[in-house]
Design goal:
By secondary structure, the chain is of the alpha/beta class. It contains twelve helices and 15 strands. The chain has a nine-stranded mixed sheet with strand order 6-4-1-10-11-12-13-14-15, with helices on both faces. Strand 13 and strand 14 form a beta hairpin. The longest helix is centred in the last third of the chain and has 18 residues, at about 230-250.
Length: about 350
Amino acid sequence: MQIRDKARWAMLVPTSMGVRLAPEDRLPVHSADRFRLFASSAETNVASIPARLGLPVKVLTRFIEGSPISALVRSDLRARGMDVEGPEIPQGDAWGYRHQFNIADSGFGARAPRVWNDRAGEVGRTMSVDDFDLARILGDEGVAVVHLSGLIASLSPGTSELCVEIARRAKAAGSIVAFDLNYRASFWKGREGELAEAFHAIASECDVLYGNEEDFQLCLGIEGPEPGGEGLDVKIEAFQEMIGRIRTAYPGAQWIGTSLREVISANRHLWGMILWGDEEFTVVKPREIEVFDRIGGGDASVGGMLYGLLQGWSAKESAQFGWATGVLATMGPRDDAAPADEAQVWGIWNGNARVVR
């Protein structure tokens, strides 16, 4: 894929920022009395990889005027090396707008993680095309890769329209358009036809498509393997056949990837990836990894893959790097990974955990 020359921004992500409350000491939410709080969103989890590794990243979102949570979010994004743009709107009153809360524990052993999304009054749902000067950002300044997520695309009719418009304008401006489908049943309930149309419109503009077998089936109607059943190794051929059907449906997509995950326990997963690109398949067969907290692993994997694309690496190298950044995200309590440098990520890929002095 051709990276746009002289683009000011390596990556652009529209997002709805929230905060995560996570119990300390791996306790379940209902019995914990101490929590960590940090800013989070799926899209900025992806963008954290290129940003932490020194590339310029732009975040588009909405804020609450005078809100301490908005201030926390701005500070967190700056600390991750991201530039942020978007309007501030009045809260209204105590029952008005706010940033969403994601309340989630990490699980332990046979006790699975549990996630509770509290998104009532979420300010990000009110975003619209009129909030941002897309002609300036995509045209005058330029963006190498625009990354869109099915989470922001399905929040509301306004955010669906925003993502479709960004995809179309980005493609016309010469940006690479990437889309991680991220299906959520609660977001699609009662809006199936509307969202299927929007997701098809976005995917039709895409150079990079990513998701799991459920995402492609439920978002785009692409037949794929049944969830569960045989082990991942047995199903790899079925995943490749699914990617073949995606290529037929969306011939503009030059890289198409899917995550491979099998949960042994909350702390032990089998983690792999399949990426079609450079006219061939790269299969990262599932390897066992140790997991501190799984949330954000898939996002970081996409972020590492897109970082490789931005660096001009092959699809194979990008898949390997993305596999390793996904692992890195699962090694700590935050949702976003913070690689120190490329060498740290390649050390994870190579299984080299020897001390670096």
